[in-house]
Amino acid sequence: MQLIKEVKDFNLKHIFDCGQCFRWEEEADGSYTGTAFGKTVNMRLEREADGACCAGSGGNHGGGFESCSGFLIIDGASEEDFENIWRAYLDLDRDYGEIKKTLAAGDLVVANAIKSGEGIRLLNQDNWETLISFIISQNNNIPRIKRCIENLSAAFGEPLPEYRGRKRYAFPTFERLSELEPEDLSEIRLGYRARYITETAKAVASDGGEMLYSLSKVPTKEAYEYLTSLCGVGPKVANCILLFSMEKYESFPIDVWVRRVMNRLYNIDENDVKSMSAFAGEKFGAYGGFAQQYLFYYMREFKEEAAAAEKATVNEKK
After folding, report:
1. Is 0.70 surpassed by the pTM of this model?
2. Residue 129, SS3?
3. What is the pLDDT of residues 116-173, one digit of tens each?
4. Is residue 225 part of a domain?
5. Could you tell me how far CA 75 lies from the centroid of its own chain?
6. What are phi and psi of 55, to 5 degrees?
7. Does the pLDDT value for residue 63 go beyond 80?
8. pLDDT digit string, tens, across residues 236-268
9. Is the same domain home to 180 and 268?
10. What angle do CA 274, 280, 286 make, to 5 degrees?
């Protein structure tokens, strides 16, 4: 079962490697396999004949912003799955070309950042899974975050059909995790986060998840206040949840990477998170979350390029 859809402003690497999700893995052929909403699929992007799509890790191919257009091939999805899950999940109905033009017109820094990750799209993920995933992400690196989430799913999630020779599991429900105590998660090696997860699961389960799943319909401030009332959810985690699952696109999560880019490119003190938030609100407004993702990806890519250049210089000296 395979589905083919024409897309633009779309790059799988940019989307799945920009820190917003943790259950997608790049395959040897550049495609990505992942699980969301209880479905496991493989996605790959085929370039259009004119080569306009930045299908690999590259971004800009000229003076402006390329469309990153091509054909998205989803293996394991039906047309019904596409309409019910993947269209919204991949945010395919939004005009990212217009967003990029608007952001770039007012800010040269963001314009350069967009060239690095112009195929980014903000995923519309499940509220509960995003909440727990970003609690796990605190003071953690991405490989370990992914491992913790997969182990948590394998231990407490419902089994899904095997895909490409590997067992798959749905993300565990809040009902299931609310039955547990921190010690029940010891084998997952979550450390202090185990208590955050079990306490938050109990809080969410207390009203059957009604409040959590209503947050996209309430003002951002109200949603933020609810999230930060949960165990283990601080400002950065709350803003990630708002942005990546609740369509609060003015949210501007500030982690170590964003602090670095705001310091190096906007000359804001790296420890002055309050000024960074105020600057983002004034500068980017309703597009704050989109700007954050371009800046985040840009700084990550910049570090990788610098590390590669340093390694090459060392090798030359040997």
Report:
1. yes
2. helix
3. 999 999 999 999 999 999 999 999 999 999 999 999 999 999 999 999 999 999 999 9
4. yes
5. 21
6. -70, -25
7. no
8. 999 999 999 999 999 999 999 899 999 999 999
9. no
10. 130
Shared domain for 202 and 301, answered yes or no, is no
Position 125: which residue type?
Q
Structure tokens at 151: 């182990």
The two tokens of residue 71 are 């054909």
In a domain, 145, yes or no: yes
Please, what is the angle between helix 256-266 and helix 288-317, to 10°? 90
Half-sphere exposure for 17 (CA within 13 Å, toward CB): 22
Strand 159-163 to strand 70-75: parallel, antiparallel, or no bridges (unpaired)?
Answer: unpaired
Q: How far is CA 101 from the centre of its chain?
A: 22
pLDDT tier for residue 69 given thresholds of 50, 70 and 90: confident
Q: For residues 169 and 221, what is the distance between their CA atoms, to the nearest angstrom?
A: 34
Helix segments in 246-287, DSSP class H: 256-266, 273-284
Tell me which residue range forms the domain holding 262: 258-317
Q: How far apart are CA 11 and CA 135, in angstroms?
A: 27
* CATH code where residue 108 lies: 3.30.310.260
According to the model, what pLDDT value does residue 110 have?
94
| Residue 253 included in any domain | no
Quickly state the pLDDT bin for 64 (edges 50, 70, 90).
Answer: low
**Would you say residue 297 lies in a domain?**
yes
In our burial notation (b when 16+ CB lie closer than 10 A, e otherwise), range 32-41 reads bbbbbeebbb
CA angle 296, 45, 168 (to 5 degrees): 80
Q: What is the pLDDT of residue 60?
A: 41
Considering only CA atoms, which of 11, 8, 124, 16 is closest in space to residue 57?
11
Domain count, the chain: 3
Predicted pLDDT of residue 142: 92
Contact 41, 85 (CB under 8 A): no
